[in-house]
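re the bet — no i am not wrong, look at it urself. input seq straight from the record:
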Amino acid sequence: MPRAPRHLLWYLIAIFVAFGALGGAAAYRAHLARRPPPPPPEPPKFYSPLTGELTTEELTKRRPVAVMIDNHPDARPQSGLDQAGLVYEVLAEGGITRYFAVYLDQAVPEVGPVRSARDYFLDLAMELDALYVHCGQSPQAEEEIPAFNINDINLEFNVPARFSWRASDRQSPHNLYTSYERTMGAAAEKKYRTTTSGQPRELFKRDPALAPTGAAATEVTIPYPKGYEGYVVSWKHDPATGLYSRFVKGRPYLDKPTGRQLTTPNIIVQYVRSEAIPKDPKLRINVYFVGEGRAQLFVKGVAIEAKWKKASREAPTVFTDAQGHPLVLVPGQTWIEVVPLETKVDTK
C-alpha cells in the first residue's frame, strides 16, 4: 500500500490536536459553569477617628463638636456625657471641674448644661479641629477666640436663641441645653465648615483584643487638691463588661435622660502644670497643655504608665507608653482626667 504524503500526515495530526483542544476547552468551560462564582469583595470598613468603633465613611468626615459642660453640683446629673466619644475633665476656678465633651458619631438630642469657655480649652479645640460650643467666656478666652480664629458657637451671645433652650426644672445658669442638630444649625448660621479639612486624624491606636500587662487597677480614685473636695472621682472596673463605672464622692454618677450610671472602657490620667492667674479678680487658673509629662492609662483593670507631649497650642497631644510606643486603647469612649502634677492617684 502506498504511503500517505508527509504533509497529509501533519494535516491529520493538526486536526486531531485542534479537536482535542476544543474538547478540553469545552470541558473547562463546563467545569467553570458548575463551580460557584467567587464571593463579591467585602465593602471597605470605616472606623471613628474618635472612638475606633465601626461607623460610616460620611461620619468619619464630620468635624468634631466640643461642648463645654457644667459640673457644678446644681448641674448634675448632666445630659449627653454618655454619648460623647471623648470627655476631658479639667480644673476650673472656684473649686469645681468642668467637662470638655467631644462628639462625632452620635446625633445627641440633649447636651448640657452648657457653661462658659476658658482659654486653655482652646488648645483642645484647636488640636481636634472642633467646633467649640459654650455660653460666655473668661476675659482670656474672649481675647484669644478671635486671635486663634476659633470657630466658636457662643449660645449666649453670637447665635440666635433657637439653637439652645433653658430647662424649667433647673435654675439658671445651670439649665442651658443644646443638641447636635441645633449645633449644626448654629454652625450653618455662622457659615462654619462642618467637615474635616483633610484626612481624619486617628486619636489613638485601638485593639479590641488588647491584653494589657501591668499593675492591677480595678479601682481608681482621683483626689483633687484642697478646695476641690467635692470632686473626688473614682472609677470601678467590672471584668464582666470591661467597663469602668464612674462615682463622685462615692456615689454613682448618672446620666439625666437615661438614669444610668456613666461608664467607659478607657481612662487616661494626664498630669499637667496648673497655677492661679496672678491678680485675677475671679481667682481663675491656668492649665498648661503645651509641653510634656506623665500620664497613666487604665484599661481592662490594668494600669499602664504613659507619657504625653504637645508641641504647641495647635499641635496634637501624642500619648505613648513608657517605651515611647503609641498608646493602644480598646475601641469605645475615652475619658481624660487632667490633674495637677502633684496629684496622687490611688489604685487597687
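see?? DSSP finds five helices and 24 strands in the chain. told u. also Confidence is low (pLDDT under 50) at residues 8-24. so pay up
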